[in-house]
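Table 4 source record.
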Amino acid sequence: MKAQHAILRFAKYKGPTISRIEAHNERTKEFYASNPDIKTELSKYNFHLVKPSGKYREEANRLIRGTGCRARKDSVRMVETLITASPEFFSGKKPGEVREFFEHALEFLKTKQAEETIVSAVVHVDEKTPHMHLCFVPITADGRLSAKEIVGNKKKLTQWQDEYWKHMVKKYPDFERGDSASVTGRTHIPPRIFKQAIRLNKQREQLEKLISELTVFNAAKLMPEIKALLRKMLPTAEILHTYMNRAKATEKEREAEIAALEKAVAAGKVSVLEQLELRQQVQKLSALEQTLLDMQRTMDAIPPEIIASYQAESERKETVHREEK
């Protein structure tokens, strides 16, 4: 039987990106191109353990104002906690048992973070593995806005993982403690990120072909096709940029992680497989970085008048959308 693990991961968000995670978590869209694994016909079975009182960003700002926190423009205003377990754990579980798991996990979060700072806790059962997105505003016990202090560095994250495992294993004794990310140096890259990168590369090749065929005589004919591709590509590129800004370490830091892991392997603390996994993750991050560089190169090759026309069209649509609201 494969080892079963309770999984707890964090992501930090500043103002503009909060609305995007709300759209995903609360299933406010009819179609999710960024994650084709979502089975929208099952979304009606998703459920809240903490239901948001309003829009995520508005609630975050309300809580920050209410506590009198000092917040800079670039402050992290929301932390998203992903809570799940190995797929094998959920196999054969009834809906009530799945709910109990997430309720037990929520109890742990409430011991670490004031309940009133939790904006939403929603469980998704419309993807391959049930999971909960719990979003909270990182306000400290003494009333400061500080994601750094709450989530902290790798040492602090290890403490979170240790305490989370101790809490979960009380109810689910089969859970095993996984290797700490501070020891293994692993970077978890969601499969959807690679799907988006693959799709972006294919679209970029189509765009490059159209650009190579551009002449004074066919520009009017090809421009709608180019704009249509840009409408598909730019949101995806923005998602990848956001991810890379969170996940990408410098080459020096990556080399330091690998060196530390080699020592851990030699000391028998982790397996050679963990070391191989880190190297693979580093290669994947480099591949994602190359995808974005290629995208920028292609964008630079697009005639300025086409970019200007696309931007003007996008602004008009945005204005109409705001007025309709």
